[in-house]
Structures are given as C-alpha cells and as structure tokens.
TrEMBL record:
Annotated keywords: Cell inner membrane, Cell membrane, Membrane, Transmembrane, Transmembrane helix, Transport
Residues in coiled coil: none
Function: Part of the tripartite ATP-independent periplasmic (TRAP) transport system.
Similarity annotation: Belongs to the TRAP transporter small permease family.
InterPro entries: DctQ (IPR055348), TRAP_DctQ (IPR007387)
A single cellular component GO annotation: plasma membrane
Topology versus the membrane: Multi-pass membrane protein
Lineage: Bacteria, Pseudomonadati, Pseudomonadota, Betaproteobacteria, Burkholderiales
Domain (Tripartite ATP-independent periplasmic transporters DctQ component) ranges: 29-158
Domain of life: Bacteria
Pfam families referenced in this protein's UniProt entry, alphabetically: DctQ
Protein name per its UniProtKB record: TRAP transporter small permease protein
Biological process annotations from GO: C4-dicarboxylate transport
One example GO MF annotation: transmembrane transporter activity
Length: 177
C-alpha cells in the first residue's frame, strides 16, 4: 500500500513538472511566432535567434508530452488491434513495449550525455543568444528520463495492478456525457 501512495505522489509531482514544461514551451512558441510574424509583416525584420529558440522550445514540448503520454499508454501503439485481444495478450504486448522503450531510452540517455558534455566543453550557445546550447539539448535526456519513469510506473501497474489500468482504459473509452 505504501508503494501505491508513493507512486501516486510521484505521479502528481511529475504531472505538475510536465504540465509546466509543456505550457512554458507552448507560450514560448506562440509568443515567438506571433511577435516574429508581426515584426516581419510590419517592419520587414526578423530576429536571427527566433527560429532557433522556437525549435528548441518545440523539442522541450515534444519530449515532455511524450513522457505524459507514456504513463497512460497513449503513446505510439496499435490500439485498435490490442483492444480486440484478451487481457493476457494486451499485458504481454505492453510488457514487450515497455521493455523496448526502456532499452531505447537507455541508449538515448547514454548518447545524449556525450553531446551535452561537448556542448559544455566548447561553451556553445544558441545562435544569436547567450543561452547555452547544453540547456536546450537537456530536453532530450530530461524528457526521456521522465518518460522512463512513466514507463516504469506503467510497467508496475501492468504487472501488479492490472485492474486499475483496465478501469482507466474503460473510462477513456466511455463517451463523454
């Protein structure tokens, strides 16, 4: 019971961080695109750093949105096929999926650490700004780290609390009143 309570607290904290990163990234993208569009239309000018910062904001948005969806199993999957399967088949495929995702995540964490080390060693910055490139590139390992925790949460539920996942699945499938 203590594991479930700790998992629920961790899940709520992760939800808050994910939502904050996603919202901040969206606001950054909207502000950059809006302001730069007006500057281009009205003054025929554009900041050289705008596209770079927007690209990195999108990267932060993408990886943390992936983490959020990993917990609920709404990331990449063939759901129509799975829904027709018996429970043991769905569980088996979920365990295979999560094992594959955790393996890929391990490879990504390992390889991106070298990239960030090089960014820090060479003191690279985002073009046209004083923002360290390592901060922008941290989105990948941080997003994957969050994703791997979410995947582990889901794996725990698949292995030890299948009924809760089935209840979530039924609630998602129920039409809104």
């Amino acid at each position: 019971m203590k594991i479930r309570k700790t998992g629920a607290v961790l899940g709520r904290c992760m939800d808050k961080v994910e939502n904050t990163v996603i919202l901040t990234s969206y606001v950054t993208l909207i502000a950059l695109v809006g302001v730069e569009t007006l500057r281009r239309a009205l003054f025929q000018q554009q900041a050289t750093w705008g596209p770079e910062v927007a690209m990195y904001a999108f990267i932060w948005l993408s990886w943390f949105a992936m983490a959020k969806h990993c917990r609920y199993g709404t990331n990449l999957a063939f759901l129509q096929f799975r829904e027709a399967m018996p429970a043991w088949g769905r569980r088996t495929l979920e365990v295979m999926d999560m094992t594959l995702w955790l393996t890929i995540g391990g490879v990504i964490l390992y390889t991106t650490s070298a990239i960030i080390e090089r960014n820090l060693a060479s003191e690279q910055t985002i073009f046209g700004t004083s923002i360290p490139l390592a901060w922008a590139n941290l989105a990948v390992p941080l997003g994957w780290g969050f994703s791997m925790v979410r995947i582990a949460q889901r794996l725990f539920l698949v292995l030890f609390d299948w009924d809760q996942l089935e209840e979530e699945r039924r609630n998602q499938a129920a039409p809104a009143a």
